[in-house]
Records
---
Amino acid sequence: MPLLKSSRETSPASPKVVAWAILSLAIGGFGIGTTEFAMMGLLPNVAEGVGVSVPTAGHVISAYALGVVVGAPLLVAVSAKMARKTLALSLMALFTVGNLLSVFAHDYSTLMVTRFIAGLPHGAFFGVAAVLAASMVAPTKRGRAISMVMMGLSIANVLGVPLATFVGQQFGWRWLFVLVGAIGVITMICMSIFIPAQKAQAGASLRKELSALRRGQVWITLLIGVVGFGGFFAVYTYVANTMTDVAGFAPSFLPVIVGLYGVGMVVGNYVGGRIADWSVMGSIYLVMGFIATMLVLYAATVHIQWMALLMIFVIGASGAMLIPSLQTRLLDVSPGAPTLASSLNHSALNTANALGAFVGGLVITWGWGFTAPALVGAVLAVLGLGIALLSGLLDKRSK
């Protein structure tokens, strides 16, 4: 198989070579998505297994998210001089080890530590994977390449999470981590074979990577994700209660609803990559406005069952459409230090997860009902659009 060298300075690889390389990265995303989201469905089993209450077991999920937020900038910064293929393999190795260690965690404290370890490479892996994918294609196809890497995360919600949940319920929750560990090993084998050998980036250094943090547009783009994507998570966090208490679905129907949401993410991710290649900032404006509109429509129509099903698909799609554009934008505004900036996108999205869940829970506590998080989410999306417009205006003034 012909090998692609480490930058666009060399002749491009064949589409077949690129496709296999991107598929290898997407398999890693599939494993990461599976371990991140399947834990929610197995939380009662985990709580019983380590002898704590379900709310206390929920902190295990928070430990993973904290690992994502901390690990993304830390691991990329300290490995700045490492070749990107080597870095991607190292991150997947750490992810695999963290999950396999979770198999042997027989008490709550140990499980907290192992989940934190497993979360550390999450954002950094997606960051370096996005840079690798973008470097293997023409500039006009970066959005599509990044979306294909992220497709693994989307497909995990449709296939990986239900499979892992079933396996965990039937054979014990520890088998979730065995399954994910196996996916990690497969990912490393595929990346070793299919991702072209690379040299370390010339002039790469910790200082150069950290230079991305001095660029205002990097922070503004991250803020778009934190605020704008917070609305997406405000709805997703409380989807079970909304669908049962407001739409009137039986709890047994929830797997279908969550699966429909996952299918929407797959479709949205695909479309998002295409419109990002059309216009990065234009797609951010378009998608943020679309998210705000759809969240309002969701709040107004979720009591009608067929509309609830349609809107849960649309909301899943609209949120996923935003990710390729944000990832591509971070590459654009961080020349010379794209890996760190790209990795920080996943720290931002996990922060958005926490923000959306917190604000959504707040309005429910105030007695505004389970449709209120969608309206709060619409406000957050509008704020995210405003931040994006400010970013675009600053671009024009700097030219």
Note: Residues 178 and 189 are 17 Å apart (CA to CA).
---
Amino acid sequence: MAGAADFDLYRTSEEHEMLRDSVRSLAEAKIAPYAAEVDEEARFPQEALTALTANDLHAVHVPESYGGAGADALATCIVIEEVARVCCSSSLIPAVNKLGSLPVILSGSEDLKKKYLAPLAKGDAMFSYCLSEPDAGSDAGGMKTRAVRDGDSYVLNGVKRWITNAGVSEYYTVMAVTDPDARTKGISAFVVEKGDEGVSFGAPEKKLGIKGSPTREVYLDNVRVPADRMIGAEGSGFATAMKTLDHTRITIAAQALGVAQGALDYAKGYVRERKQFGKPIGDFQGVQFMLADMAMKLEAARQLTYAAAARSERVSLGASGEDLTFFGAAAKCYASDAAMEITTDAVQLLGGYGYTRDYPLERMMRDAKITQIYEGTNQVQRIVMARNLP
């Protein structure tokens, strides 16, 4: 009869758990001490970028053939989750590096991969993703940014909005219309560099949360891009963008898991210490029930997210029939809804203290909110799920 160690279904591997331990230690030592300051000052978490880059954790998804760590989809999620547990803004470094570069990995030419993935892997550059526009959010297919062929180049004009890490990243995957009559089949993808003439950025948005991750508009004013910087064939950009989101929505689920875990961990410690009516408030059944519900929702979200990450990896390795579109949307939607509920309850458990900036929970609650919105609102996720029921 097989022993318990032989039944590894629904259990992460030893390597994944070792990775978790090392990222958690790094995050607590090098990222957590700056999290409140980064939020308060709404400044980029340079300390986190330095620590992540020094430990090859800033873009773990880049394949080994381009100088990267070659981490699988689940390992990438664990890195993002453990960083988000202490600082949601900092977790956007590995998350957005994957989002911005995945179109190149999925659809780019070999030359494009060598040119842009190697500096990303080395930590010499970050990568952002430019899909949304002022009038094209959930309806990304309605974008107006144009790319017009001119000899060996394309000339890009338009505005991209809500671009994470804009101004800090060196590289940008930009979706632009090459055939206005073909709707989504007339959209193409390009790599635009920060230093390209005609590229500029708006002022940082003043946001509710993730204040350490700059969100700006990207302005493209007659930006001339060599034709070989097109990602995939002309007209394939929107399909690449949607395929990218199938994979990267799972990283937002991981971010939601992390911030929820951080809030639950803090609340657990607090209720053991805080005394009212002569005993720790954690001894009261009403408080215990809240913690039980928080932990239950978090574990359900984690199982769904990890199952989705496994599907993402199998699809990357060539498998079909994995229902990745459904699972990616479900993980992102469920985990982010759970994170909002868990962080809100964690604030409640601290009472008045939870509402002050002297404690990290109000920051975690504010940070959790964005996970319900970006990479497709949870209303859009439900549409995606309904259209792709397994």
Note: The longest strand covers residues 153-164.
---
Amino acid sequence: MKFLFIFNHQPYDGSDLTWNGLRLAKNLHNRGHDVRIFLISDSIDLARDCIKKPENYDNDLVAMLKEMYNNGVKLKVCGICQARCGIYKNEPYFDEKIKATMNDLANWCEEADKIITF
């Protein structure tokens, strides 16, 4: 199956929302599913090297996402949001190839068997 995860929230917002979404995506990928992650709004900070794990978090969400990406999870990040959203506006993504458009998200939505938002 093709799973599309759409993240919207700031990665370190005081909740486990992003962490739980990444854990589910990783689990499904490890089961052999086609997993795609699209970051939009403030979640885009998750794809920036400049963001550091707060001391009160026990999981490095950026490192977790990078590992998943390097292991074959497909990742795209809103290009417009890069300058508009997140704490680190205008900072580059850890890989420029992941920059995407709303058209890319629409395509992934059409191709997905299931869409999950966090």
Note: The radius of gyration is 13 Å.
---
Amino acid sequence: MPRTAAPLLTSPIPRVADSDRRRTSASVVLRSVLEHGPVARSTIARLTGLSPASVTDYCARFAELGLIRESAVLRRPKGVGRPHLPVDLDDSRFVVGGVHVAVPYTTVALLDLRGRVVARREVKHGGTEPGRVLARAADGLAELLAGLPGSTVLGAGFAAGGWVDRDSGTVVEHPLLGWREVPVREVLGARTGLPVHVDGHARALVNAERLFGRARGSRSVLHLFAGNVVDAAFATHDEVHHGPRSQAGAIAHLPVPGGTETCDCGRVGCLQAELSERTLCRRARAAGVADGVNPMHVVDAAAAGDPAAVRLLRERSRRVGRAVGLLIDVLNPERVVVTEIGAMHRADCLAALREEAGADRAATVSPISFPDSVLAVAGGSVALDVLYRDPLAASPEAI
């Protein structure tokens, strides 16, 4: 061979392909245990299409890591054969931390491997300077962990509204907080000593729905988040679309025909200005329904029979339903999930939202599966999504 000839490409490409294949196979095995456990290894092989030997190997490795355990109860097959010793998630050992930064406060939480919140607290902002907010979040996580001495934390997830870049771990822009180019992963990681994963809350909740909620198994999911921040996320074939620098889902400034609210951008009728919980609370104060800026006070007033509160919530749900209908027309998802306070807590608001989204599509629209823990689940699910995508990297020794 001449000295100038390039060497043949041999092992690097197969190694990368093999690594991706192993990661994907490990992911589908652990998610099968999550969804179907306690489940026999032979059933996992049938569900995933992997060989029984491969499934047995992955299960052995997960057991070594402490992610799964054998069930104490033998399961007898329906036909002829030996009893199976099924496997199930071991949710007694590991937790992940979750941090969600909202406009008025930060939610810190610990979630188990099933996405269940085992501890949480709200930390009110004493000013929204990023370093201070993240320091208080880190302290809050430490206090929660101190209350669970038998648990091992695998990492932490961070979620927020606005423009959040998953790859760089940065909040690029959050106008309501006044944040720009905040290196959350770096700052929070240094404060906690944990691996920190970062994403937008609308995308985080899509991942929570596909892992733990009613959208599990759906081929495509649209999620609309209507809080103080209004944004959206879309997933197809188990992948959430992020776009360049994770800017997908920015719908805050979509124009609303007939809108009357002045947006912070200076225009009238932007989607976020019309649908924001800040707008709901301001209208509630003007109507004498409730004081303050907590939208749950409007829900409580409606539950107590206040007709003005009921009207405000129904009207807002209808406007959210129109936005959902527009997004459905563009994306045509199999399932739609809406995080909206009226639809989460009142059947009449959900019915109004579905009606505006379109009678032929009403059955595909459902409220978020975690109405009492939305923000806690959003933060923790960022870390849990990483775990279920690459479970063999979940060893606590990697922390």
Note: The longest helix spans residues 12-36.
